[in-house]
């Protein structure tokens, strides 16, 4: 089978012809065998890029697999083979899931308990982008911060993978949404989704812009801060938070880990949630399972939609990583397997 191999650490956005490129497509990688009676082999249709996949190949992610490895986490596809004891799936079923590694390949094997049926009517490529981004935002906003209708949600990095999913889930919850993104294209896109206020971080002061908006709506401040960016944006955002606010620490796309002063958290009664979604699979698997089932039902009802920004073939994975690295993504960047009508939009 075809599989993308990371054979050394480095920048996967480099052209694959560059000798420093850490990734290469192998055309003859062995098809994975069913590992147990409850194993299911899936022919991958689409797999999404998450910032963590990029960091992992760079060697800057908290989980460092031994080399060589096949990167990739969330994916969708069609069941190709099932173990003797599999009871919930049959060959031909459309499924999606998330793996620790290995989805940048034509086939992947998972245990049946880790697979989710993609409802009729849901696009299979789109379903491959749902687990990590929407799963993270759903657990963060609904399970941890318990976002309520009418509360003010501030989303940083709002046009990126997790950011855009937070915007959509915030809307389903009935929150007033303030989104922060860089550049006119992202701002116009977020406005077209009906976001209440968008701050263009390339030219506006976030504190001033948000305070003016809150004043016009007679709102006091931000109730929930969703932060996948960190750095200065997070530091400024803290000045906008209400008494009793929830801070969701999601990631550090800026490369700068912010400091949240404990004395201010005390005085303002803030709750700070560190959230590592992948670890729910080990510590609270039922939360993650219920969350993904709810999201798939929202997707089938049209309450959320998945914005695919760029789609590439496996052999073009370096271009996919470039789109992420260069902050071009409006939603999700995907790898779509063969027979696809979707082409790169770069
Ligand atoms: N905690 C968890 O379980 C979990 C789960 C998924 C993702 N994450 C983390 O969340 C972060 C975002 O992931 P993602 O998949 O949504 O990535 P993404 O699609 O690339 O989005 C990241 C956003 O961050 C903004 N950004 C600000 N400064 C940046 C910089 N210096 N470089 C790159 N982007 C920058 C960009 O928006 P502008 O260009 O508009 O500023 C971009 O849209 C990552 O740190 C990732 O590891 C955490």
UniProtKB/TrEMBL annotation:
GO terms for molecular function: oxidoreductase activity; zinc ion binding. Coiled coil: none annotated. Pfam families: ADH_N, ADH_zinc_N. Residues 17-335 form the Enoyl reductase (ER) domain. SMART domains: PKS_ER (SM00829). InterPro entries: ADH-like_C, ADH-like_N, ER, GroES-like_sf, NAD(P)-bd_dom_sf, Quin_OxRdtase/zeta-crystal_CS, Zn-ADH-like_protein. PROSITE patterns: QOR_ZETA_CRYSTAL (PS01162). PANTHER family: QUINONE OXIDOREDUCTASE-LIKE PROTEIN 2 (PTHR43677:SF4), SHORT-CHAIN DEHYDROGENASE/REDUCTASE (PTHR43677). Homodimer. This is Enoyl reductase (ER) domain-containing protein.
């Amino acid at each position: 089978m075809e599989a993308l191999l990371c054979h050394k650490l480095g920048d996967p956005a480099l052209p694959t012809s560059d000798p420093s490129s850490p990734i290469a497509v192998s055309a003859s990688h062995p098809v994975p065998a069913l590992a147990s009676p409850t194993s299911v082999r899936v022919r991958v249709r689409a797999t999404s890029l998450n910032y963590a996949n990029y960091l992992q190949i760079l060697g800057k992610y908290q989980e460092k697999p031994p080399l060589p490895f096949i990167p990739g986490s969330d994916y969708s596809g069609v069941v190709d083979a099932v173990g003797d004891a599999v009871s919930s799936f049959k060959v031909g079923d459309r499924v999606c899931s998330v793996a620790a590694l290995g989805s940048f390949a034509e086939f992947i094997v998972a245990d049946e308990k880790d697979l989710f049926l993609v409802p009729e009517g849901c696009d299979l490529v789109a379903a491959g982008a749902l687990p990590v981004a929407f799963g993270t935002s759903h657990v963060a906003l609904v399970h941890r911060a318990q976002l309520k209708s009418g509360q003010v949600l501030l989303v940083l990095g709002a046009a990126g993978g997790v950011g855009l999913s937070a915007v959509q889930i915030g809307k389903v919850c009935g929150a007033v949404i303030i989104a922060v993104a860089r550049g006119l294209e992202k701002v116009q896109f977020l406005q077209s989704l009906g976001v209440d206020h968008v701050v263009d971080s390339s030219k506006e002061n976030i504190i001033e812009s948000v305070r003016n908006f809150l004043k016009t709506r007679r709102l006091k401040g931000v109730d929930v801060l969703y932060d996948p960016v960190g750095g200065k944006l997070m530091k400024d955002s803290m000045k906008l938070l209400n008494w009793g606010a929830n801070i969701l620490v999601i990631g550090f796309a800026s490369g700068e880990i912010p400091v949240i002063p404990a004395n201010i958290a005390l005085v303002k009664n803030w709750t700070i949630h560190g959230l590592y979604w992948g670890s729910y699979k080990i510590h609270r698997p039922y939360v993650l399972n219920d969350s993904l089932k709810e999201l798939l039902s929202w997707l089938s009802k049209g309450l959320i939609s998945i914005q695919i920004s760029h789609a590439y073939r496996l052999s073009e994975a370096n271009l996919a990583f470039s789109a992420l690295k260069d902050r071009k993504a409006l939603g999700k960047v995907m790898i779509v397997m063969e027979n696809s009508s979707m082409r790169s939009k770069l």
